[in-house]
Amino acid sequence: MPWYREAHWRILIALVVGLGYGVVAAYAGWGRFTADWIAPFGAIFFRLLLLVAVPLVLASLVTGIASLSDLNKLSRIGGKTIAIYLATTLVALLIGLTLVNVMQPGRMVPDSVRLTLQQSYQGDVASREEMAAAVSERGPLQPLVDMVPDNIIGAASDNRRMLNIVFVAMLFGVGLMLIPPERAAPLLALFESLDAVIIKIVEIVIMFAPIGVFGLIADTVTRVAGDSPADVPQLLGALGFYCLAVLIGLALQMFVVYPTLLRLFTPLTLRQFFPGMVQAQMVAFSTSSSAATLPVTMKSAQKNLGVSEEVASFVLPLGATINMDGTGLYQAVAAVFIAQTLGIPLDLPAQLTIVLMALLASIGTAAVPSAGVVMLVVILEAIGVPAAGIALILGVDRILDMSRTAANVTGDVTVAAIVAASEGQLAPVSPETRSLTKGV
Ligand code: ASP
Question: Which of 151, 348, 363, 385 would suit a FRET pair with 55, their CA atoms being 20 to 30 Å apart?
Fold first, then answer.
């Protein structure tokens, strides 16, 4: 098949064309037309992906855990997974903090621009602060309490409560593991069948990915540019160094840290890893949601990289929910940048507080667009920086959200590959073999 018919190339082309269209549309004043006639296709694609996210997490985690066959194996794989997730997030945070302290992007923002930014995003700040206030008024153990839902239907009805679904799925999986096999069989068969149906639906949805990605990107660009695209270069000029610090950090994490880990702990080559990941990365970039990308992430890890179903169905849904290296890195850079811009010095204890808070915040961040900013407010409050400071960065947040989500997803798959390799459950697929298989 010619290269441009391959799924990931078609999505990449859609992404580039969508970007180009967005820029032209912003300058030509086609914002209304784009919102009415193009954005809906992106929204439909996004909704379809999110629609399958909850049943996918439920079905794949239940079957994944039940297939681990005993509690020892579950605690071994679970322990390994969580330890590596925490370690990679910690590395990301340290990279972010080092960069923002060395580059000092906050010193580049002129006073006049700072005032304008603060004024123009006042309204947005208020709504984010309200959401964050609810989070930060809680006791120290509240995140643990929040993990446990009191109603399955309630938890399943909100994509932001994916951690609840993970919890319910784990309970079910463990319960199924502990009852006699003949009694577990019917329910297990039901979940396995649900899993298979969801995977089929994902394949169908992904066929429309190029249209969806085009719609999402075109809409994002016209929205960000708004009615005054001429202001965008000025905004990028003032916040350019900040964006650069985040993007350099994400690039280091994606192209140095993960490849090093893969090299050390798996037989995967980079020629296998990156082409195998690219489709999930592009869907993450255009949807800004790890949860929406999860169906694609799972397919890519299994079909393209050879991660076993047993490991993928446990490690990836968990990772999409709790492992957000890109988000943590961004939160660390953003917190220090805001403090620098407002002229608030941060000593070592304050920076260590950022590491701890960002580690927790990245776990608690919902896998949906912009969730990272809400948790950033909580971090700012912990280090005594006025939360209204987020007004400074909201204007460029979308592009950073897209990029950090791509990093989040790459981190999840890297850890899945490492865990699979350590369990003897990684069978790398050669690029040649893969190009013979259709779709993902
Ligand atoms: N959009 C990110 C994700 O879903 C979360 C964030 O806002 O950082 O992975």
Answer: 363
Cα of 297 from ligand 1 centre, angstroms? 15
370 Cα to the center of ligand 1, angstroms: 6
Please give the full DSSP string across 297-362, using - where no structure is assigned.
HHHIIIIIT-B-HHHHHHHHHHHHHH--HHHHHHHHHHHHHHHHHTT----HHHHHHHHHHHHHHH
| pLDDT mean for each 10 residues of the chain (440 residues) | 70 88 88 93 91 87 82 90 96 96 87 70 66 66 83 85 86 90 93 89 87 90 73 73 96 97 95 93 94 93 93 92 94 94 87 90 84 86 83 85 96 97 85 46
- Domain that residue 27 falls in: 3-437
Helices (H), 157-227: 162-178, 181-207, 209-225
pTM of the model: 0.85
Label each residue of 371-429 as H, E or C: HHHHHHHHHHHHCCCCHHHHHHCHHHHHHHHHHHHHHHHHHHHHHHHHHHHHCCCECCC
What CATH number does residue 378 fall under?
Answer: 1.10.3860
Specify the residue with its C-alpha closest to ligand 1, atom 1: 369
Number of domains in the chain: 1
CB 344 within 8 A of CB 385: yes
